[in-house]
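Service request form, structural biology core

Requester: graduate student, group of Dr. S.
Request type: structure prediction, single chain
Budget code: on file
Notes: please return the result as structure tokens.

Sequence provided:
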Amino acid sequence: MARTNAGRRPDSAGSSSRARVRSADTGGQARGDRPRGRRSPPGTGVDLLELARAVVRTEAEAVAALEGRLGADFLRAVETLAGCRSKVIVSGVGKSGLLAHKLAATLTSTGTPAVYLHPADALHGDAGLFTAGDVALFLSKSGGSEELLALMPYLERHGIPLVSIVASAGSPLARRSQVVLVTGPLREACPMDLTPTTSVTVAQVMGDCLAIALLERRGFRPDDFRFLHPGGVIGRAAARPVAELMHEGEELPRVGESTHLRELMLEIMDKRLGIACVVDGAGRLAGVVSDGDFKRILMRHPDPWALTAAEVMNRGPATIAPDALVATAVRTMEEREAGPITALVVVDEERRPVGILHLHDCLRAGG
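Core staff response, request fulfilled:
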């Protein structure tokens, strides 16, 4: 009698069932497959691009949350530092120490005399830096750094008030501070929550908040900035308005929208600023044409001389107000998103061009 397969499940059905199980276990992908577009080092399953984006999100969220932490304690910290009769001594350990060094420099350059003191150096002779009238500003994520706590007797001896920036409100350093600025709790951007990343970023922002608030509290002005920064173009030109250096009147290269390319070229060559303003019928700025634009036009058009200024101009030129600071103008030219430029159109409130500011003039003013 022939044998039958009755009661036995076909192999194909079993294979199909097992395939469904594997599919469910792997989220519908065959083992070893990876979504397209991701690149990971051999032996890891980490999407490095997404990891980097997660770092940005983690730190950005922590900085955004810091805004809600600014309140009465922050104002007390500002008043404590503003009342300093001598100098602010800024200290920290490790990454916080690097940040403390930077913060001391920022405070000093904006009108609040400050020095960085490494706690280990203080314990080996540099504690003589502490004098009556000082204010101490200590940075620590944990608030439990033994090196910083070891400096407390020196503060107490001279009656030096302590402002601390910490992530933990209940830390030993916080308990011994006159004013505490709490930045946490927070999570480091490191996947293991170990490497100082978010904590350093947030502490730096808190320090910047203090520096800018003190700048305003002290009435620090551009003249003061120039006095404290005598070297470099920013220092020597910071307090000067754009109107003092711009080319105006007959020196201003200006053409109408219907001006043909030849006349436009002659205007750029005659005024020797490398740019010409194009104005509409009401005298408002419609665009600009630079000598760089002009070269590109000649390369693109075999017979360009019939073109008008309106047809070739850049309709979105960078501009600045005549009462803006030269330092602001320099940053605008150097940090322009589309690339650095060497000239800015100076416009009035009606967007009429009143001058051209050239980077070379700014550099000469700082020389």
